[in-house]
Write a structure and sequence with these properties.
Helix content: 25-40%
Number of helices: 17
Oligomer: single chain
Strand content: 25-35%
């Protein structure tokens, strides 16, 4: 890849290295200069630009990032669309992330242009949380290096997820004379809360004397009830693999797997099994809701990941959890929001208009690609990475509802649909849930917009990096759909007339990200009989 100053006359197709202000506008960093851009710069008197020019052996950054991300993405993980040379992998469900550390290290040694960053192996993640990111550092990577990365992981993808599944867990608590029920109740409550956060529950509970015979009988009892795993909280901490709790497990026919762990809090944990059922002797920290070694073991057990002696012995690096304020309360409901994740974006489809330019027909109900136009738009949104779909209806609302029967959407009515586009936009944005990060606004009469277009716009959204309004462009010209961060919802609520929110893009130019597309789908609105026929003529058969 050539990088340096390039005469404007020779810059068509080159990638702009830095944002450029000139008399007539601003071109942002990363823009691929078109012939029209070159003409505008020439007219403004710009003589040269600092830019990158691809050579035959180059793979553009987004293409390279997406290819490597697909190669490293294993079961339980999904990839986002690539943007600015980055492609993310995220969890398809709650689970435990599985990382092949050796493979990731090897990938990062292939070429300085290619980087792969992941979470720590065996971290607990929630659905939608980021697992890994592939970032191409310059504007392109060598084809040979990209191929080397893909071939390196061809047999086994190094980033995967073991989903956590519901289990019926049994709890045994032992007692001494004088042990208070309130103490046992609190312990059971914390353990139950810990399990509930992982989608499981306490199926059965036993309280018995702190002796091996009673413990053995309680284990046998819970096995008969189908509990797995079985957790044992002793009235006294386990101090040896031959102590009372492990002896009770052996009395029930069990085998001790490992005692102790290099995680603090959590040192005095004991793992065992009776047949195929895991049994865990809990340390004292199991009574605390804070993150500790018990969680590290439970995550794996509930995800079906083996927790043998070597696995526990490998937990020491990063295992010092004690007195770390940033760890916080694992059970804090807000903890999940602190983890990096894919943005929560709602799709808002405007389908309330009167369709005046179409004549007597309602354009949204006209058939394109084998379905009503609005049905196609909804289908593309549902298949995208938008987490939910909101459809704003008004004119002939009952008919629109009817053609969308069976679609998983939420309808909101706009009683003022005759007041123009802004009325529908305000109603749709107001319906977006309070925990959403933003909304991508689609028009019901733009059936050429695909899931790929939608995902590419969503992938660009990153308010932290200054990309909170994402606008698709082709040859530098803006189109639809536009993604709006939550910060702009209040201004959208104050709109009026039939012009939508387009003027807000100019007002907040510093927050706008142009998302380059390769086709004209973002311009194709079907609002006249002629446009409908033209679209049908071009549609694939």
């Amino acid at each position: 890849m050539f990088f340096g100053s390039i005469p404007v006359a020779e810059a068509a197709g080159c990638i702009l290295a830095h944002s450029l202000r000139f008399d007539g506008g601003t071109f942002k960093k990363g823009r691929q200069l078109s012939a029209a851009d070159v003409a505008a710069l020439t007219e403004a008197g710009v003589a040269e630009v600092l830019a990158a020019r691809f050579e035959d052996d180059d793979v553009p950054e987004e293409e390279a990032a997406a290819a490597i991300a697909r190669a490293i993405c294993g079961d339980g993980a999904k990839t986002s669309a690539a943007f600015t040379g980055r492609c993310n992998l995220f969890a398809a469900a709650d689970g435990v992330v599985l990382i092949d550390r050796t493979a990731v290290d090897r990938l990062n040694q292939v070429h300085e242009a290619i980087t792969v960053a992941t979470l720590t192996p065996f971290d607990h993640v929630t659905e939608g949380q980021l697992l890994a990111t592939v970032k191409i550092i310059p504007f392109a990577a060598p084809h040979e290096a990209v191929d080397a990365c893909i071939n390196m992981v061809r047999d086994t993808a190094p980033v995967a997820l073991a989903p956590i599944t519901p289990h019926n867990v049994g709890l045994i608590m032992t007692t001494f004379s004088g042990t208070k029920d309130s103490v046992l109740d609190k312990t059971a409550g914390v353990v139950g809360q810990r399990l509930a956060q992982l989608g499981s529950g306490l199926n059965a509970e036993r309280r018995c004397a702190h002796d091996e015979t009673a413990i053995g009988a309680a284990v046998t009892d819970l096995l008969a009830e189908g509990c797995a795993p079985i957790l044992i909280y002793g009235a006294s901490a386990i101090v040896d693999r031959r102590d009372v709790v492990p002896a009770g497990i052996v009395a029930a026919g069990g085998t001790i797997d490992h005692f102790g762990m290099p995680v603090d809090p959590g040192n005095l944990i004991l793992t065992a099994h009776v047949g195929e059922t895991p049994v865990v002797g809990l340390p004292g920290c199991a009574r605390s809701p804070k993150l500790n070694g018990v969680d590290w073991v439970l995550w794996r057990l509930l995800a079906g990941v083996p927790v043998d002696g070597p696995a526990i012995q490998a937990m020491g690096v990063g295992g010092l959890l004690k007195e770390i304020p940033s760890r916080g309360q694992l059970r804090d409901p807000g903890a999940a929001d602190q983890a990096p994740r894919v943005p929560r974006i709602s799709a808002v489809i405007l389908a309330a208009g009167q369709s005046r330019r179409m004549g007597a027909a309602n354009k949204l109900l006209e058939e394109v690609d084998g379905a009503a136009m609005v049905r196609r738009v909804v289908a593309q949104a549902q298949a995208s990475q938008a987490r939910d779909v909101i459809v704003v209806i008004g004119h002939e609302g009952a008919a629109v509802r009817a053609v969308l029967e069976g679609a998983s959407v939420r309808f909101v009515d706009n009683p003022h649909f005759d007041e123009g586009l802004s009325a529908s936009l305000k109603v749709g944005i107001a319906a977006v849930s309070a925990d959403a990060d933003g909304a991508i606004v689609l028009l019901g009469d733009m059936p050429a917009v695909t899931t790929g277009h939608i995902n590419r716009v969503i992938a660009a959204f990153n308010p932290v990096e200054g990309r909170s309004i994402c606008v698709p462009t082709t040859r530098g010209k803006p189109g639809n759909p536009v993604l709006w961060g939550r910060d702009y919802f209040a201004e959208i609520a104050a709109l009026s007339g039939d012009v939508g929110a387009r003027h807000l893009i100019g007002t907040h130019a510093e927050a706008v990200c142009e998302v380059a597309m390769e086709d004209d789908a973002i311009f194709v609105d079907v609002d006249t009989p002629e446009a409908l026929q033209a679209y049908r003529d071009k549609a694939p058969r």
